[in-house]
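This section describes the prediction task in plain terms. A model, or a person checking by hand, is given the sequence of a single protein chain and must write out its three-dimensional structure as a string of tokens. No templates, partner chains or ligands are provided. The sample shown here is typical of the held-out split.
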Amino acid sequence: MIELAFSLLAVPVIWALVEWRLALLLCLATAILQDPLRKLTPDQPVLFVTFVGVVFGAACLGAWARGNRLNLKSVTGRDRRLAICISILLLLIIVQAFNSYLRFDNLSVPLIGLATYLLPIPSIALAYQLVLRQGKFRINQFMKWYIVCITLALTTVFLEFSGYDWPVLGQVGEKLIIYDQATGAVLRPSSGVFRASEIAAWHAATVACFVLLVTLLRRTTITRLLTAVIFAALVLGVGILTGRRKVVIEFAAFVGTYLILWVVLEKRVGKLAIIAVTGAALAGYASLASELREESRLQNLEPSTFSLYVERSRGAFRDVPSRFVELGIAPVMWAYEDFGLFGAGLGTGTQGAQHFGAEAGVGGAAEGGLGKITLELGIPGLFIMGWLAILFIRHLWRIMQTASRHSLGMARLSFGLFSFLVANVAAFSVATQAYGDFFILLILSWTLAFLLAVPALVEREVRARQLAIFEDHPSVFRPIVASNRT
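The expected answer:
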């Protein structure tokens, strides 16, 4: 079976080498297929999770062979402070890679960490080059194909919950059981064709966010918005079956951030309608339990079992403060107390490192994002990451301000992309498991690249608008052109 898998992998690899502009779609197809292939292979080797990285690497090689420079210098522009901070962080990452190797005497552990921390550099650069060459088309193309393909894959989560026992369904490795403290229920999360329920939950939340983002890029009507909200609610309903409450939290963070940006940066009457409709949608989602209970009864499911997943998700908002303290702040202290000022080294808290013995003695320090950074980069790394976050927020804020002044479409795009990143920062701060997945890292990197490319898209749109005015009214500009020549 593994020979067949490598043969199939050769197809997108060669395709990516020949046509690097299709990198995003080829990675999407590979990410969906690699987990089912792994489940069908004896011993379910962990090597399969790197397939999407191999395809992306081939695309980078193909782009480089055609003269594209995949570095961050052209992406960040002339922001000197941002460039300095990134350089310091890269130096610290290299130092912590040596720290990890000396501590564990295992080359695989720092290599896993390096892959996780350095992957965003070429992925941001590649996606940025794609947008510069083909504009918003590539952004829309990826998000729409992602919505279609991942939605189809998420239907297998529902099939697993319904009792289908296919070899491609279920979690890789040991089956996970969730004990809900609020209800005392024992839940068996479903993951469908994805290798873990964490991964399936992340994709469910992302599809819901992208559906709203794509809808708001067009001329917004009540009908379109309601259709998007209903579709997002159905996807979230499937995501609830993973047993991961962050599905609801991430989507709520996305919507809340988008509305705040809209109110602060846009001065339009239409915002009131969007706020009202979205607020009504969220209020409707709060009553999702009773609706899904009735729907499950119509589909001959066991209502009591299904309602437990819904009830667990409804308590997510109530537990946000305690989870932030327990999984966000506390792991920082655990990492410092167990491994000191400079942490345990790169890769020790990264998902997948457990296969190489890196989690020995780590405990729950890597459960939350801040704890993972402290564990792998030490207290200095935590401060540098905070510095980098502040600089990026300032840089991205200027981008959104520029877009809101010149283009409503670009403003909506920038708001959505930024809100998606904020939602994932919030999710990462309390749960890091999904963020060791290469494809998830790629998507987040591409999202940031899309946002960084917005100024170029705005400039292109403004020039096209001026050219159109000149072509429609050439007599208005002739005196100006004549005076410039003299």
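For orientation: Residues 285-304 have pLDDT under 50 and may be disordered.
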